[in-house]
Amino acid sequence: MRLWSLAPDYLDRQGLTACWREALLAQAVLAGRTRGYRNHSQLVRFRATPDPLATVGAYLDGVADEATARSYHFDRGRILEPPRDDRPPVPRVPVTEGQVATERDHLLAKLRVRSPARVTALADAGTIRVHPLFTVVPGPREDWERA
């Protein structure tokens, strides 16, 4: 499972659709709807929030926004706790600079093989943008990241 901290517009078609599916799986785990993946390391940061389902819902919403911008149809009806105007926004989740750099390198390796045309936008970016749910803080790669 890879729940990218990077802005979804860096992802290629395969990466964006995989991110959507994997975030739906994360949502199922957090909702207690599946027995698999319960201890997956990527879920640590969602579980650490006051409302993990709303947080993963905000994550899914950001991925769906990018899909819509590309004229893809991701079924927002599958988001259990979508962002709504009648409740406060989900607090942003910190992600370290080291984690962002790790993910950038990981995604670049994938893009070089699968989608070379998308490499330039990420490789030449001065400041790497992150998913709207996250806020970048100083620090090394996250402890939950697999080496």
TrEMBL record:
Name the record gives this protein: Pyrimidine dimer DNA glycosylase/endonuclease V
Lineage here is:
Bacteria, Bacillati, Actinomycetota, Actinomycetes, Micrococcales
Species in which this protein is naturally found: Isoptericola peretonis
